[in-house]
Amino acid sequence: MKIVVISASPRKESKTQFAMRLAYEHAKASCPDTTFVNMAETPIDCYRGFGESYGEATTNAAKAITDADVWIIGTPIYNSFFSSALKNMFEYIDYKKTPGKVAGMAIVASGEIGFNDVQTMITQLLSYFRVVANPTAAYITADKLDANGVEEKSAERIKNMVDQTLALAKKLR
User: What is the pTM for the complete model shown?
Assistant: First the structure.
C-alpha cells in the first residue's frame, strides 16, 4: 500500500507541517512506502490548464498523490476555508485515476470554530474524486503545535486518525 502525507500550507513557518510531520513518521512506521508532500518546501506551480508544462516538483507531487492508495491530508483553515494551495494541487489530479482511494484529514486552526465546515468542504472535494473519506478528522488548534513537537493529546488524535484511515483502506482493499 502506498501512502502520501500532504501538508497543504504554503507558509514557511506553517504549524500545519508540524502536525503532518508527525502523521508522516507515524504512517511510515506502518508502511515504508510513504511519501511526504510539504507545500511549504515544495514549490507547486499555479495550475494553468492541460497541455502546459510544469516544474519537476509539481509533477512529482501530483504523481505521488495520484499513485498513492491512501492520502493523509493536513490543511490549515484560512478565511473559513481549506488552503487554496490544496485546491490548486488537486487541479493536477486526474479524477479517473482516484476512485477507491482512502483519505484522512488533519485540520489546523487558530481557534475552535470552523473545523466541521472545512471537513465538510474537503469531504465534498474528495467525493468528486471518488475517494472514501475517513469520517473522523483530527482537529488541532495552532497553540498545540510548534517546532519542538505536538502536544500529547493532539499527537494522539493525529496518530489515531492515521491508524483509522489505514485500517479503513485495508478493509476496502
Answer: 0.95
pLDDT digits (tens, 9 = 90+) for 117-172: 999 999 999 999 999 999 999 999 999 988 888 999 999 999 999 999 999 999 99
Q: How far apart are CA 112 and CA 29, in angstroms?
A: 30
> Alpha carbon of 45 to those of 40, 51, 64, 116: distances in Å?
13, 14, 15, 29
Using the CB atoms, write b or e for 108-133: b if 16+ within 10 Å: bbeeeebbeebbeebbebbeebebbb
Is residue 92 classed exposed, middle or buried when 0-12, 13-18 and 19+ CB atoms within 10 A define those classes? middle
Nearest to 92 by CA among 45, 41, 125: 45
What is the predicted pLDDT for the residue at 98? 97
Interatomic CA distance for residues 103 and 8, integer angstroms: 14
Domains and CATH numbers, the chain: 3-172 (3.40.50.360)
Asked if residue 19 lies in contact with residue 139, where contact means CB atoms within 8 angstroms, the answer is: no
Q: Backbone phi, then psi, for 153, in 5-degree steps?
A: -65, -35
Judged on CB neighbours under 10 Å (0-12, 13-18, 19+), 163 is: middle
